[in-house]
């Protein structure tokens, strides 16, 4: 857990993009750790997708807004993969890790599993699979499917 915390602080501290949640600060004392992010009043995208309340989904997330959310997530991923000095592979893109601001603009969050790599590095090596079942790219749990790259995040995005 300590390694994931340090990894998240180091990774997200380098990022400044409209579709990436902004880290404002952090605290660490013994085994207690906290990350302080910008306030995201509409919580995660997961809340709306899996709410079971079709009213929320139909009234708040009209097709135009859903398109804006999808494009915002894609822009955030493109920045992580191409726009930073070091390429950042997230490895856990899923609705729970997409936070929504006041205007339902999406922001990618939770960089605990992220990996930094050189911009010219197309394939990365991992000692263990990273991600959430149901969203994890096949190559992350079986090397028979090919090398691990930014395409793993694209797979998770859908």
TrEMBL record:
<keyword id="KW-0067">ATP-binding</keyword>
<keyword id="KW-1133">Transmembrane helix</keyword>
<dbReference type="GO" id="GO:0005524">
    <property type="term" value="F:ATP binding"/>
</dbReference>
<dbReference type="Pfam" id="PF00069">
    <property type="entry name" value="Pkinase"/>
</dbReference>
<keyword id="KW-0808">Transferase</keyword>
<dbReference type="InterPro" id="IPR000719">
    <property type="entry name" value="Prot_kinase_dom"/>
</dbReference>
<dbReference type="InterPro" id="IPR045874">
    <property type="entry name" value="LRK10/LRL21-25-like"/>
</dbReference>
<feature type="domain" description="Protein kinase">
    <location>
        <begin position="1"/>
        <end position="158"/>
    </location>
</feature>
<dbReference type="GO" id="GO:0004674">
    <property type="term" value="F:protein serine/threonine kinase activity"/>
</dbReference>
<dbReference type="InterPro" id="IPR008271">
    <property type="entry name" value="Ser/Thr_kinase_AS"/>
</dbReference>
<keyword id="KW-0732">Signal</keyword>
<keyword id="KW-0723">Serine/threonine-protein kinase</keyword>
<dbReference type="GO" id="GO:0016020">
    <property type="term" value="C:membrane"/>
</dbReference>
<dbReference type="InterPro" id="IPR011009">
    <property type="entry name" value="Kinase-like_dom_sf"/>
</dbReference>
<protein>
    <recommendedName>
        <fullName>non-specific serine/threonine protein kinase</fullName>
        <ecNumber>2.7.11.1</ecNumber>
    </recommendedName>
</protein>
<keyword id="KW-0547">Nucleotide-binding</keyword>
<keyword id="KW-0418">Kinase</keyword>
<keyword id="KW-0325">Glycoprotein</keyword>
<keyword id="KW-0812">Transmembrane</keyword>
<keyword id="KW-0472">Membrane</keyword>
């Amino acid at each position: 857990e300590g390694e994931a915390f340090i990894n998240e602080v180091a990774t997200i501290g380098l990022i400044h993009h409209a579709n990436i949640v902004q880290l404002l600060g952090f605290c660490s004392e013994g085994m207690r750790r906290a990350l302080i992010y910008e306030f995201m009043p509409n919580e995660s995208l997961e809340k709306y997708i899996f709410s079971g309340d079709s009213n929320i989904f139909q009234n708040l997330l009209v097709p135009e807004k859903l398109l804006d959310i999808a494009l915002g997530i894609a822009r955030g991923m493109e920045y992580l993969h191409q726009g930073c000095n070091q390429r950042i592979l997230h490895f856990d893109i899923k609705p729970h890790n997409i936070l929504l601001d006041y205007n339902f603009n999406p922001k990618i969050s939770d960089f605990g599993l992220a990996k930094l790599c050189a911009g010219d590095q197309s394939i990365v090596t991992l000692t263990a699979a990273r991600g959430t079942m149901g969203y994890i790219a096949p190559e992350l749990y079986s090397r028979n499917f090919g090398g691990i790259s930014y395409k793993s995040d694209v797979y998770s995005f859908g």
